[in-house]
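Below is how a single chain appears once it has passed through the pipeline. First comes the sequence as given, then the structure the pipeline wrote out for it. We keep one example in the README because the format questions we get most often are answered faster by looking than by reading.
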Amino acid sequence: MAARTLLLNTLAVVGLIAPPAAWPQSCLRRNEMPVQVRNAIEAGAQQVAEQVIRGDVVALRANAAPTLQSSFQAVAAAVNENHSGLAGMTAQPRATYLLETGPAASGDGHFYCGVFNANGLAAGGAEFAIAGLAAGRYAIALQDLTGGRVPYSLTTIYQEIGNGWRLAGFYIHPAAAAGHDGLWFRERAREFKSRGQLHNAWLYYVTAWNLLAPVPFMDTRLLSKITSEAGGSQPHDFPVGDKPGSFAANARSYSLTEVSVYRSETNLDVVLKYSVPSTADFNATQAEARNVAAAFGAQFPELKEAFNNIWAHAVDTNGGDVVGGVSLNAAAARADNVLKPTPLPSDIESVDPALPLWLRGGAGR
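Resulting structure:
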């Protein structure tokens, strides 16, 4: 159940901010765009979804924009890696957007879709941050793939070329992990935070955001709430951006470059990456990685309540990567047999575009 991204640019998650009085680029939502344009975009998105479900990489590539052709192998890998989980699914359109850069490239790359008020983005709106787009028109289609073991989120980006829309970006990922959806992880993150378990809270907030965000360069009121709540729980010893964290174990100090969550249908695992001069001695490096994983679990025993395993990756400057791990046997992180959609919290609007259709109002898949 891999998640892959292939987009036109380097993209970043952004916080919701009030838009300037005027900006060169614009965004129209589904009910705001011309019917003919909307129908063309959504028909193309439906066709792409059916090709993805079938695993028809050849057909996908045939309609790819030139900017995507040279690196299409990432799209093919994403489709192939997720193919077994997508069998028999159907696609439902969730939201559609029409982006126009204006006569020049997209400036700061912020596209505001919806109404802004004194408190920021109104319900149902969205913001995209895609810097450096070539001048032109683009479309973003959000779809929910349901009917399998785990629902998926599929987002496709299109570039208008000539009289048609060509596939220019692709993002797919499971919308649940270990038997739970993004809203469930947000609620558990709040519980961990209230009990002072900031490491669990932060990692669960990150998991909630990753499960709910259709793409990493989109923001909505729901995603902004998660980001805001998580801000007060980020552990000081975790890496922040390009600044590594520091972790002392086994009479040594390690430079942590990443602390993240690996998620699947059955497991939630903590993943560490730390820098080493060399990984040439595989056996010694792996033994040390196991010790680092064990020491991390011992230093933060709260992780046993939320995760199944810890995997430590020793990474050198030549790209060498040696992993060692320990089991936490966390009962709390074991997957439920059947995904039960979390009831919609009172502070979340059902029209939020980051919310899958099957989660709105607690409706089942």
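The chain has a mean pLDDT of 88.

See the next section for the split statistics.
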